[in-house]
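[Q] Does anyone have a clean structure-token version of this?
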Amino acid sequence: MQFVNFQGKKVAYRIQGKGQTLVLLHGLCEDSTIWDDFIKNLSDYRIIRPDLSGFGGSEILPAHSIEMMADSIKVLLDELKVTQCVMVGHSMGGYVTMAFAKKYPSVLKGVGLFHSHPFEDTEEKKEERRKGIEFVKRNGHIIYVKQLIPKLFAELFATSNEFLINSLIHKATQYQPQTIIGAQEAMLNRPDCGDVLKNLHCPALLIIGKQDKTVPYPISLQMLPLAATSEILILPKVAHMGIFTARDRIVKTIKHFMELCHT
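[A] Here you go.
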């Protein structure tokens, strides 16, 4: 793990490999280690895996905003002298990817939304986040993540893979409550980026799970017409964590997408 400084705070990251640069951004209650097994068959690329605000080895940024997370990634890429890359974000990482695309489009050779979308939260989702924030404030984060993590998987997978689920829960309990609250606040207050996806000057990769309850399938379908040049992967039996449940197929798709972005 290495670090850069952003507004007086440490931003942690992992970097390995050589070749075209692929930046992978994790989601809520995750950190850069979520990609450990995922990247084993992506050895042809230079892979940068940051820890977002408060997760992993990164300190909480001065303000809880998706835009500030995007700015911290830009500082990291500048430090590493990365002028162009493909950026793929899982869930919350996809929101950061869209904020980055809005502010720094010339850096991107391709954008991937992995169980994510470019839109502002619906009112129902905003209320869900507010309730989650209040729950953590009242009851702490341990009960919260114990309830959250299993719901990210299809029910059959979750009941058949208790060790994985419990490992992810244990990892998530190590984060500070304020980190989880801050991330929820950042997502709650993020602006709509539908126009950003529509006006992209680079290809987009859209990875969708039909059983995803966190990013419901009808919302995912709304983004399909927006990207002029896109590669779309719809996974019928996958929920929000295809990073584990459909790893090989998604890795293959990302490899193909990398070729598309560099032709």
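[Q] Thanks! Anything notable?
[A] The first helix runs from residue 66 to 79.
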